[in-house]
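>> received
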Amino acid sequence: MKKIKFMMLLSVAIGLGSCSTNTQAVYWVNSSQVESSAGAGKMQCLQVYKGDNLSKAQWEAFCAPIEGFTFEEGYFKKIEVSEKPLKDASAGAPNIAYTLVREIEKVKDSRFDLQGEWKLVILGEMAITPETQPTLKLNINEMKVNGSDSCNTFMGSIKTLTDKELVFGDLASTLMLCGEKMEVADAFGMAMQKVRQYQLKGDQLLFTDKQGGVLLTFAKK
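>> returned
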């Protein structure tokens, strides 16, 4: 009888011990995913931050699935997750099972309002016609930009992008000469180099310099 009781108590202790290995964690999930190499190929992974200050987040790629969680591009999500170690995980597979406990907070990433194609409508005091109209395409997920200065096509990176700041990296361009269009093309290129901030006003996107002076005004294409 004593042996039976001992075995029962041992089973309970083991059960409690296994339960105690489950932990709860709180993550911020980024508004965009990142491509990461996994195994023989590439895959889209979440980006997570385990701190509290979203404005100072340092994101890390997170390629394991979180059961019950739905990613939404353009939204930061603060979630509580259960972490359960897996004893028999196969080689190369996650050794922890993640399950969504609850979604704590959901915050729209205002940067994604810039996503898509834009056409220039105002460039200083210069008249912009459909024949000389620069265009711009912003890819926020990949932090890339491309478009046309009305003569040449260009492409490059977005170096800095916050809810107010915007700085482009070096822009590579074709080198055609286009007669009268060159005045617009040259002025557009110079203005793009000076962009440091942006504003969204209705359906218009304004690029400004570091003093807040408007350089370029776009409308959604």
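>> The chain has a mean pLDDT of 89.
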